[in-house]
Design brief:
482 residues, alpha+beta, Alpha-Beta Plaits, Chitinase A, domain 3, Trigger factor, domain 2, 3 domains, 5-stranded antiparallel β-sheet, 12 helices, 12 strands, elongated, disordered N terminus, Trigger factor
Length: 482
């Protein structure tokens, strides 16, 4: 039976009384009263169970006076009684009103301290309130009118050959260069020690010992490798470079630096052959199979880049199409999580809102909008998936967890056990799998226009998307479901 504001109290369990006091939008509040007589009954019942099992010095088994047990355990038992009553009230409120809670309820004990003490002694009624938010009812309807463009890039032979050459270079053997007058040149593998400084001060991550570097590979900062050419083994040289403006470590981006480099060893590159033997080195039977594998991998990368683009387009369309009231608690929770990451990134980078050309107030407003979008899309996708019967098999979760554990070499068992013992953490593995399945379901119901583009066009679009993600990573929707 549904509780309504102003109704006479309804009975829950034995004598617990529940009255709905608020029904406004997605917010619900109930007043719960557990009469003193019921408290006493529950307390006595618990004490009787303990009496039958209690073993206390000075008393025969099963003969410990209830009054003595009450002095010893009464308060702790009453705490359990109260907790049980709270859980029971919440459960019955949800079941009898057919509610879909958006989050855990807020329990409030508004009485004075003296009143609470009397209730704990079963001398007065125990009253508390249960406040909660419910999930909105979403009218999904059809997806008519939603149309997206799916970019398709074909893999050509030149791309496969480029990867083959790179694999061959990686498999190249090197032989030591020895003798008088031997100097480093492009293509050699140099073994170096170095110490980097900015304005004369060493910086974190700027030093290394015994580092192998193939000159001309472009592995280090632009201009670094070229300045090592002509250096002999045992010699040192000061290399001057400037970190790129888009360098991954923001504290170093655009900064001029010097490196004191000592050449410890030098090796000349051997010849490489792109043949069946190269393929066998990668576990494939011949060169043709290696080419097929490379082509399939490139195609998967292109498909993934295309998916990221059209998925964002689809989510934008869904966000524009649907509007419904959002549970304030979920939005606040999402915003708080986003804001903590923003603050952590600022602390790590040393940048401020002013450096980004904004203010904290404006940034909070922007991220609040992002939080609302993520909650809206998360609830919408969950409802669509539920209506469509979308499921994620345990085997799929296990496979994804296995892949996650593999990304932590040497700690695979610890990672696996952590997720297995923490349902909430395991849900974080399941959620994106569920989301992708829902996205695929929606894709099958909307109009999709395939457009063939070049690799350059596809990746240029992908670079633009990555730049958006870099500047405002919280706009990503890949983890919209929590």
């Amino acid at each position: 039976m549904k509780f309504r504001a102003g109704d006479e109290v309804e009975k829950v369990g034995q004598t617990m009384q529940v009255t709905e006091t608020l029904s406004q939008g997605l917010k619900r509040e109930f007043k719960v009263v557990l009469p003193a007589t019921d408290l006493a009954t529950r307390l006595d019942s618990q004490l009787s169970e303990i009496q039958a099992k209690a073993r206390i010095n000075g008393f025969r088994p099963g003969k410990v006076p209830v009054a003595h047990l009450k002095r010893l355990y009464g308060r702790s038992i009453m705490a359990e009684v109260v907790q049980e009553a709270v859980n029971e009230a919440h459960r019955k409120i949800v079941e009898d009103n057919a509610l879909r809670p958006a989050s855990q309820p807020k329990i409030d004990f508004p009485g004075e301290k003296d009143e609470l003490e009397k209730a704990f002694e079963a001398k007065a009624d125990f009253a508390f309130t249960v406040a909660l938010e419910v999930l909105p009812k979403i009218e999904v309807g059809s997806f008519e009118g939603i149309e997206i463009e799916r970019l398709v890039a074909e893999v050509n032979d030149a791309e496969v050959d480029e990867v083959l050459k790179r694999l061959a270079d990686q498999s190249r053997t090197y032989s030591p260069k020895e003798g008088e007058g031997v100097a480093a040149q492009k293509g050699d593998k140099a073994t170096i020690d170095f110490i980097g400084k900015i304005d004369g001060e060493a910086f974190e991550g700027g030093a290394g010992e015994g580092i192998d570097l193939v000159l001309g590979s472009g592995s280090f900062i632009p201009g670094f490798e070229e300045q090592l050419e002509g250096l002999g083994v045992g010699e040192s040289r000061t290399v001057s470079v400037t970190f790129p403006e888009d360098y991954s470590a923001e504290a170093l981006a655009g900064k001029a630096a010097t490196f004191e480099v000592t050449l410890k060893g030098l090796a000349a590159p051997g010849e490489v052959n792109i043949d069946d033997e190269l393929a066998k080195g990668f576990g494939l039977e011949d060169l043709e199979k290696l080419k097929e594998s490379i082509k399939a991998n490139i195609a998967r990368d292109y498909a993934a880049a295309s998916r990221r683009k059209w998925k964002r387009e689809l989510l934008d369309a869904l966000d524009k199409k649907y509007s419904f009231e959002l549970p304030e608690g979920l939005v606040t929770q999402e915003f708080d999580a986003v804001w903590r990451r923003v603050e952590a990134e600022q602390s790590q980078s040393g940048r401020s809102f002013e450096d980004e050309g904004t203010t904290e107030e404006a940034a909070r407003a922007d991220y609040r909008t992002i939080a609302e979008r993520r909650v809206r899309l998360g609830l919408l996708l969950a409802d669509i998936g539920d209506a469509a019967g979308v499921k994620v098999a345990d085997e799929e979760v296990s496979q994804a967890l296995f892949e996650r554990a593999r990304s932590f070499p040497g700690q695979e068992k610890l990672i696996w056990e952590y997720y297995q013992k923490n349902p909430a953490a395991l849900a974080e593995i399941r959620a994106p799998l569920y989301e992708e399945k829902v996205i695929d379901h929606i894709l099958s119901l909307i109009k999709v226009n395939d457009k063939t583009v070049s690799k350059e066009d596809l990746l240029a679009i992908e670079d633009d998307e990555n730049e958006i993600e870099r500047k405002d990573s919280e706009k990503a929707e890949d983890a919209a479901l929590a």
